Automatic annotation (TrEMBL):
Organism: Bombilactobacillus bombi
Family matches, as NCBIfam families: YbgI_SA1388
A single MF term (Gene Ontology): metal ion binding
Protein name per its UniProtKB record: GTP cyclohydrolase 1 type 2 homolog
Family classification: Belongs to the GTP cyclohydrolase I type 2/NIF3 family.
Length: 264
């Protein structure tokens, strides 16, 4: 079996830390990488219900997409559910590691998985970050469909109960589609510069949506949680690495639904 360092080495070969965005707290979140790893759980988010699931499953390593500690703790008062979650992780000796924006930008990473889920063809990169590293992916549909039909396809492919559509003409036929997982609304000028018919991204800000309409860009906002594709994809990666290295890892996919929103 590997220890935490050996496992993290494989993760960082796949999604190098050099790719992560500035100020992104990607990497080791909590725990001890010297410990042997027998049971790993993959998850999008590390929330109290996910931690309880990990404890019940006797997991010793959580591999997450979103960092646990976006904001530093100001105290360790365990009446705060977030602090109690940290205490539970520590008391059960569960190591937590996150691969966030480095996995978004990695070749065969998050945005490639999302593009593949939408069956985009001839996928290419677009949207460079401050280090000139591509973030988003774009590709073409096998045939042109309306913006509205595409929105319904996104709902179906990601099993959504609702999404937000920003469009001056939902009946417009489109074929060149870009996608940025998570919160990518601020990159819409690069979508325009790339000549995309539609940008798919989450968490679009109200005033940004007005600017998108003024620029006549079609945007589909399916929310942030479509990145849950990370769970199955990284489970598959970990199983491949385990087999190739004779690690005998047990890899579990979290069954907890961390989507905070409900459409009613």
């Amino acid at each position: 079996m590997p220890n935490g360092y050996e496992l993290v080495q494989k993760i960082e070969e796949y999604a190098p830390l050099s790719l992560k965005m500035q100020h992104d707290p990607t990497g080791l979140q909590l725990g001890n990488l010297n410990q042997p790893v027998r049971r790993v759980m993959t998850t999008l988010d590390v929330r109290p219900e996910v931690v309880q699931e990990a404890i019940e499953q006797k997991v010793d390593f959580i591999f997450a997409h979103h960092p646990v500690m976006f904001h530093p703790a100001h105290n360790l008062d365990t009446t705060n559910p977030q602090n109690q979650m940290y205490a539970d992780l520590l008391s059960h000796q569960i190591t937590v590691y996150a691969a966030h924006t480095n996995m978004d930008k990695a070749a065969k990473g998050m945005n490639d998985w999302l593009a593949q889920q939408l069956q985009l063809q001839q996928v290419q990169t677009f949207c460079l970050d401050q280090d000139k590293i591509p973030l988003g992916r774009w590709g073409t549909l096998s045939q042109a469909i309306s913006v509205l039909e595409l929105a319904n396809k996104v709902k179906q492919q990601f099993a959504l109960t609702g999404l937000r559509l920003i469009s001056n003409n939902p009946q417009m036929l489109v074929q060149k589609i870009g996608i940025i997982g998570g919160d990518g609304g601020k990159f819409y000028p690069q979508a325009l510069a790339s000549g995309l018919d539609v940008l798919i991204t989450g968490d679009v800000y109200y005033h940004t949506a007005h600017d998108m309409l003024a620029a006549n860009l079609n945007v589909i906002d399916p929310g942030h949680h479509i990145e849950a594709i990370f769970i199955a994809e990284t489970k598959s990666l970990l199983e491949q690495w385990s087999q190739a290295n004779n690690w005998n890892l047990t890899v579990l996919a979290s069954q907890s639904n961390t989507e905070p929103f409900k459409f009613i």
